[in-house]
Specification:
Layout (H helix, E strand, L loop, with lengths): L5 H4 L31 H17 L6 H8 L7 H12 L12 H16 L6 H12 L1
Length: 137
């Protein structure tokens, strides 16, 4: 039996918290009191990729350390372990620039976050690519 994580049940593998943002593909019903529920996983992946692009372009976060510090603040997470995991998966130093603007790098970053948030990647490459393509459109 394959038990889904909360992020998978919500089609929100990045565990994006609910706020005033009305995301594309956001479900009409929002049964989770904390996290957004999306209609399909590709929409949750799109939102995750959009946030990563916003961090990069709007806030100038260019290192894994900066990105994950913002994404998973230490008040709620073991951020240092999160940074180390993502940097290791990406094969980069946590404090060295990482080009999120590259579609291939964005995909690697998104996959690393999904893996960390859910303990696995339960999506095929097409679903992930569809989400990233929507984010880049």
């Amino acid at each position: 039996m394959n038990i889904q994580t909360r992020g998978e049940r919500n089609n929100n593998p990045g565990n994006i918290e609910r706020n005033s943002t009305m995301w594309q593909g956001m479900s009409d019903a929002q049964p989770d009191s904390r996290f957004v529920k999306f209609d399909e996983p590709a929409y949750g992946i799109r939102a995750l990729a959009k946030i990563m692009l916003t961090y990069y372009h709007k806030y100038g976060y260019v290192t894994v350390q900066q990105i994950i510090d913002r994404w998973a603040p230490p008040e709620e997470n073991d951020t240092s372990a999160y940074v180390a995991h993502v940097a290791d998966v990406l094969g980069v130093e946590p404090d060295k620039p990482f080009n999120v603007d590259s579609p291939a790098n964005l995909e690697l970053l998104v996959k690393a976050i999904i893996a960390h948030e859910n303990g696995r990647i339960a999506y095929d490459d097409k679903t992930i690519q569809d989400g990233i393509d929507m984010a880049l459109a």
